[in-house]
Design goal:
This protein has about 230 residues and is of the alpha/beta class. Helices cover about 50% and strands about 15% of the residues. The strands form two sheets. The chain has a four-stranded mixed β-sheet, sandwiched between helices. A two-stranded antiparallel sheet has the order 5-6. The longest helix has 29 residues.
């Protein structure tokens, strides 16, 4: 009898142990990786930039910081390990204390290279100048086209120029347009509707998040394969 009782206890212990192991693995899978810390204005953990390119970008950022006190950091990581890029960027900003104390004037450009995701997060002190709309235009016009060509240096360099200009209230996000005739907006509206219908038929499209550019069911910047600058 005691032998049966011992077997029953052992079986229950094994079941509980297995259940505990499964719970631990489940929680581990849902827990994001350790948040990277900013220790340099330009951190490339993927080899997307050459040493010379990273050095040139770093010097530009340091000169900008000296003249404005605003801080910009570029962080390129391989992957988010399933995490949300905006939440990751916010944690990095908060933990690394990017920006001057009391001013909260830091800007983080976070690129997850293998995930093909990018986001710009701005400290409260600069949100009046570097708005969500400005960040979206920079990602759309400067970063995404260059990243599609595997030109990480070019895209980041253009984005830095736009961010530095925006922080001084001078960025417009495009060339000035001439005064147009009344029928041109109608044509534009029709074209936009046509594109929207085509996109809906494919069940794919872009959606702008509060900071960043998100594409459903696809990479954020699409295009060909990923390459690095040797």
């Amino acid at each position: 009898m005691f032998r049966r009782h011992r077997h029953a206890l052992a079986a229950r212990a094994a079941v509980l142990l297995a259940a505990g192991a499964l719970l631990f693995l489940s929680l581990s899978a849902q827990t994001p990786g350790r948040t990277p810390r900013i220790t340099d204005p330009v951190i490339d953990n993927t080899g997307a930039l050459s040493r010379g390119e990273a050095s040139e970008l770093r010097e530009r950022i340091l000169r900008y910081e000296d003249s404005t006190s605003n801080q910009i950091a570029v962080l390129i990581i391989p992957t988010l390990d399933g995490g949300d890029i905006r939440e990751t960027a916010i944690r990095i900003l908060e933990q690394s204390k990017l920006g001057q104390q009391g001013k909260d004037n830091g800007i983080l450009l976070l690129i997850a290279k293998d995930d093909r995701k990018v986001v710009i997060e701005v400290g409260y002190g600069l949100e009046g100048a570097v708005t969500d709309a400005v960040c979206d235009r920079i990602i759309r016009n400067e970063l995404r086209p260059a990243f599609r060509r595997d030109d990480y240096y070019g895209g980041i360099s253009e984005a830095l120029t736009a961010l530095m200009t925006a922080s001084q209230g001078e960025f417009t996000g495009g060339k000035k347009r001439r005064k147009s005739s009344g029928w041109i907006p109608v044509v534009i509206i029709i074209a936009v509707l046509a594109v929207s219908v085509a996109a809906a038929s494919r069940r794919r499209g872009y959606a702008i998040s509060s900071k960043g550019y998100r594409r459903h069911n696809d990479w954020w910047w699409g295009g060909g394969g990923i390459g690095g600058g040797g």
